[in-house]
Amino acid sequence: MGSKTRDAVRTKTAIIDAARRLFAERDISAVSIRDIAQAAGVSHGLVQHHFGAREELVAAVVQDEIDEFAARPRALADGATADDLERIRDNLKAGMTRFRDYALLVMRAELAGVEPERLLDPAVPTPAMLLATSIRELQARTAPAPGGLDPDLVSAYVNASLFAFATMAPWLMTAVGLEPRDYETRFDEIIDISVRLIALAVGAPAGS
Description:
mainly alpha; Arc Repressor Mutant, subunit A
């Protein structure tokens, strides 16, 4: 890779990172190309050169997040063992800790009428699709009872909890009579509930 190509990759990465942060902090319509350029430490023209309009930057941030997750090892390997659910638990914990900006971006995009679901390429598996695939693989190995839970809906439900806790954990905790800080202290329990739902879907023990 030549120096110019490396510079272009670094510039695009800086722009996407800045856009992700600003879109999460403010309404998308309140973030200008100049704001993003300033946050990324590049010129206004460079942002337009690489991405054009603001909507294209929203699409780039969404795609970047999907690509980052797709580059990780899959939750389940061929010939997976009884540690399958623990691997899924680890993936969910990793996702929760870095998910906030992305979740806020998607939420703000929906409110702004950008329809971020239209930015998804059906041919490119999302993290939610990969989790559903993992659940199907586990179901095939454990032979759950007929009429069990749909892997796609289980994955959608788990991802809904990720989005909710990432964007409004203090409100959720307070709404059930807990303290906002309980989100941090009971984080492992929250993840465990998702894992138990997955275990129910595949007819496997959830462990301790």
